[in-house]
Amino acid sequence: MTTRLTRRRALPIVGGALAAPLLPSISAAQTGLPEGTLKILVGFPAGGGTDVMARLMAEPLKQRTGRNVLIENKAGASGTIAAEAVKNSAPDGSTIIYIPSATIVQKLTMAAVPFDPMTDFAPLTLAGTVQTAFVVSPSIGVNTLAEYIEWLKKNPTRQSFGTTALGSFTHFFGVMVGREIGVPLEPVPYRGAAPLAADLQGGHIAAGCGGITDFLEHHRAGKVRVLFTSGQKRTDAAPDLPTATDLGYPKLNILGWYIFLAAAKTPPAIVQAWNKELGAILALPDLRKRLTELGLDVETSTPEYVRERMAKDLAHWKGIIDGIGYKPQ
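^ thats the sequence. predicted structure below, dont judge the formating
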């Protein structure tokens, strides 16, 4: 079962960061964490969503533990370079990774992945869940899924959608949408969310799929239109946006997540120490608010739950991938 977040003293937001003075630190001995600098690896470039979330969490972790906490970006191969680095790191808990399910799912979508998510890591905690958004260009003049379906029937040459990456949730979700609405949609690959958002705004492509964090600000500015998201319940980041389930398509429920992992064979006592410290900072109301604004529905868990969820979701995703007919590249 997922543990419930406990409420703790809030940290003020100053200049876009979490301010330090109000969070009491605890001694290194009390934390149970390893001595020396603690590193959190991020498998994506600085400034991206994963990096921003990790840095927001690193600051209160540093304040709470009194330790030096570094974010190290090892970008490349959709996060697998950083994952391999943690896999090969010393199993002493000094190096961990903040990693999305989009990296984990590559075990199913790539012919050769340099890690096994079930055996090469020691799970620490769930950080939260994220949803995929189905968006349309404002140039096509639709505001609802029903209107989009009618538009597709009148424009058979534009039955395609942009995906931020082939072999990803954003690819599979778009294909699933086409199957469910009875109008097959053809994926068009983009090199990330930024060029896709630009083409949607310019009317060069009618629709697209990406993480809710990729499009939420564009949606609020009227530059794209989010028709629905992929969760079973509405995201905390945008409770006004319907889910596919709300619209009568319960099969369109595909939920991603972020987790913390350490190297396999990390001592159980250190795993539990990380679980405790990460759970404590993720319970901070102001940090939770900032992460929610970025599109993360914050949720913590036991290490055992992370392993169970990975196994369950990998099996579920394999069924989706096999049903679509996608072959590992």
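DSSP finds twelve helices and twelve strands in the chain.
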